[in-house]
Amino acid sequence: MRFAAFFFDGVSRAFHQGPSFSKLVVILAASSGGLVAYADSKSDQAIESSQVAHRKKKMVVLGTGWAGTTFLKNLDSSLYDVQVVSPRNYFAFTPLLPSITCGTVEPRSIVEPIRKIIKKKGGDIKFWEAECFKIDPTNKKVHCRSNIGTNLDGNGEFLLDYDYLVIAIGARANTFNTPGVVEHCHFLKEIEDAQKIRRSVMDCFESASLPNLDEEERKRILHFVIVGGGPTGVEFAAELHDFVSEDLSKLYPTVRDLVKISVIEAGEHILTMFDKRITKFAEEKFQRDGIAVKTGYKVVEVSDKDITMTNASTGKMSVPYGMAVWSTGIGTRPVIMDFMKQIDQANRRVLATDEWLRVRGCDGVYALGDCATISQRKVMNIFMRPISSSPFSASENIKREDISLIFKVADKDHSGTLTVKEIQDVLDDICIRYPQVELYLKSKQMSDIVDLIKDSKGDVQKESVELDIEEFKKALANVDSQVKNLPATAQVAAQQGNYLARCFNKMKESDENPEGPLRIRESGRHRFRPFSLYAMDQAMVKL
Amino acid sequence: MRFAAFFFDGVSRAFHQGPSFSKLVVILAASSGGLVAYADSKSDQAIESSQVAHRKKKMVVLGTGWAGTTFLKNLDSSLYDVQVVSPRNYFAFTPLLPSITCGTVEPRSIVEPIRKIIKKKGGDIKFWEAECFKIDPTNKKVHCRSNIGTNLDGNGEFLLDYDYLVIAIGARANTFNTPGVVEHCHFLKEIEDAQKIRRSVMDCFESASLPNLDEEERKRILHFVIVGGGPTGVEFAAELHDFVSEDLSKLYPTVRDLVKISVIEAGEHILTMFDKRITKFAEEKFQRDGIAVKTGYKVVEVSDKDITMTNASTGKMSVPYGMAVWSTGIGTRPVIMDFMKQIDQANRRVLATDEWLRVRGCDGVYALGDCATISQRKVMNIFMRPISSSPFSASENIKREDISLIFKVADKDHSGTLTVKEIQDVLDDICIRYPQVELYLKSKQMSDIVDLIKDSKGDVQKESVELDIEEFKKALANVDSQVKNLPATAQVAAQQGNYLARCFNKMKESDENPEGPLRIRESGRHRFRPFSLYAMDQAMVKL
């Protein structure tokens, strides 16, 4: 290394504008949990130990998508020692991905470097471009691995301690284990995917234009297939159609008549998650544009030249294609599946959190965005509770129901029956804790709980009615039908990120002044309102 | 294929705006030399055979860089049946490549689709996105291979016939066979190279910022090495410096002091091809900026972490690095090397053309831009000529000199001596055919050939002097020292493209009215002036 020293002779002054490196070492030591040797100097050790006493809680945020980035932007990062881990050092405005595929928008227009966001917030957040490959909730650690060709000791892995872990790593494309999809289809989840699709579209036009091909082969190459009639697939099909008809057909006049775009959807319609009028409009528009919408076809295999699918009436069949985009929804990432096994969620498809975005059974772990779903507590929920509240005699359990506890909380005079007034007194809290109650009233076009009681008990006078527990149960019997999972959209992820950041920002205040609804099973109030879509002040969401 | 037909049911109308496909078949048949079966229909055959009679000459253009694209833009494509072959379906404004590496400029801003250029010209040019991998001058064919994953019959290869072949495929990066360069270094010749460099720079900053690295390793990762002090390397070093100091040092405050940029140059100075004042300015500026310029170091090996080099005074040594860009000039592409073997140029480093950009010894083959050099005929050239001009007795050759023939042409009265007037009569033609004569006069600050004669014969009266052949030879003895190869720049390539297009456009007219200088070895005039830099009307160059 003789030469190395010679080479590094006093040149680094050029970029020197800030704090010295020794300060950095201390920050690293405090944050990365004993992995950096403290032996730098005596004084460093002294500073370090005094810091440990009042050190901030360590927060690790996994992911920089909609959920993670919105969380980060809204978090008061002075309150925590924040570390962000993501294989992408930027946030991408994903709804515009289909436009990247056809060059309508350039990638740089839809990305925002995470380090710029950090800098805007004062710079006391650390970012590691790496992927978390194991969550260890028992020891409160996450295992990470750099995805760049680094020469870290060993295999480029490192370990981070946390007090709070915010999991926002999103989902992966779901192939339903269909053979050939990973090898031959494009996905459309990342910027790189969109760029690859763009190159692939151009390649198809170029190769279809080559000499010595028969027309059948040219047609095959120019058959663009989109598997999945969800918003991403439909958006891409529309963008591609416009790209072909407005630009490519002029540049490739000899092959433009051979182009074909098909959307293959297993269900009966495309865009089923939206209003039926939207579905109808899209299907009609696609027909006018010459985009073939093939509903009721399930793709079972993809080879380099053919897509094989089954259909109820026609059976199995193959269709030749040139390029295919697979967009059939989202699946759980392996790291989350492993995590779910550790926390007794192995039998679930998706990681479940409570209404406060806390992962059940894990202290200090939160999950939001596409990697988790909120498992809404049901009014008719039945759960087991130890007879004695003492942990030493917790061997015997009895069955409890939420609805009985709600009745108990509402029945302030312990009369065994509820008056309308008693119900109305707790109704706001009930509706916050169990939003399905309000949704149910709305769905039945009822303005008030009294209507619900009337409905179950027959026509009665407003004030005089009293309900016993069975009547109360009967009145609320069907409200849980309104429990629905939130869609896996950018909007939901962003609102969750903002919600959770607000909770962390108000953690201290809410200890003294809880904001949430009445607790049903215990006394007092919940610290925060549960997460609910559109409930927050929209002006607060920094996007 | 039952389903295929069902799938293609009358949807292609969507992109139908132009000529029918049957017309395309005829065009292809006429152009690709019998490779497409003519059996389409009787009428097609009739059209085809009538076209063969007065069919245009087939021109194949290889390459879409500066030379190829400028040629294409300036060519009157109605005169020829033009086919363009290139692995890139766009022209790139390469001088801005270094700016792509740091995001100053976006790739789409510096590219122009070839098909757009073709469309502007009326669309009667065919473009194939493929690479020529063999030139066959004997049979006047080029062998091409598509570089896209197509499913052409066989291995995706096809053959094109030509009457005229314009080779403008540029050069490859020259590694001088240094071990490890291809594996570990970036080049900077294509858009993709620049994009890779950009990602690599970001990756270096991200990986140097990871936890658990010692400072030595961080320094290694942030050591950016540019091998080669030519315009490309220097430009990149400067761009990178600005990128680091203006942007990255703000986003990566913890590692900014560890960044180091080095330019390694085997020669004594950087930018030796330019004026010395430019070299001095660049070296001083780099020193102020903290960019290390290491001249006199020759890189002999590159590994994944170290660059090994030799230096006259210090011997062999290694320096750790994070990213390296190799930019030490250009080398000949394999297809050109193979072509050179076929035409007896195997002993040359670069493909040679005459002053009219014609490849010597190849009928109808032209080469321009970085893939060829003009081999300027020397005044003192000695060549062999058959005693008889009849091809049947060409077994005996005699030595001839250009200078003697020039003397003979100038000596109109066959007196055996040249008067100043006789010399002046042919001087313009001589200077066009042998531009070194004019350059020599300029370099000696002589305004006229009389000065040259004076210089060689001593002080004499202007009009009275007469030169015999030996005196004439003596006067011109040193002019050939001014013969220089043109630099491998975009400017030269573009001017050559424009020059050659103009020649092809005027091919017919120039038969009757030759524009060139007097022929020395034969009677009459050359068809065109030889190519010379800056000699053309600049307004004509469409860039």
UniProtKB/TrEMBL annotation, chains A, B:
The keyword Membrane applies. One of its GO terms (cellular component) is mitochondrial inner membrane. GO terms for molecular function: calcium ion binding; NADH dehydrogenase (quinone) (non-electrogenic) activity. Pfam families: Pyr_redox_2. It is found in: Mitochondrion inner membrane. Transmembrane segments: none annotated. SUPFAM superfamilies: EF-hand (SSF47473), FAD/NAD(P)-binding domain (SSF51905). It comes from the Eukaryota. It catalyses: a ubiquinone + NADH + H(+) = a ubiquinol + NAD(+); a quinone + NADH + H(+) = a quinol + NAD(+). PROSITE patterns: EF_HAND_1 (PS00018), EF_HAND_2 (PS50222). InterPro entries: EF-hand-dom_pair, EF_Hand_1_Ca_BS, EF_hand_dom, FAD/NAD-bd_sf, FAD/NAD-binding_dom, NDH-2. It is a peripheral membrane protein. Residues 398-433 form the EF-hand domain. Its EC number is 1.6.5.9. Keywords: Calcium, FAD, Flavoprotein, Membrane, Mitochondrion, Mitochondrion inner membrane, NAD, Oxidoreductase, Transit peptide. Belongs to the NADH dehydrogenase family. This is NADH:ubiquinone reductase (non-electrogenic).
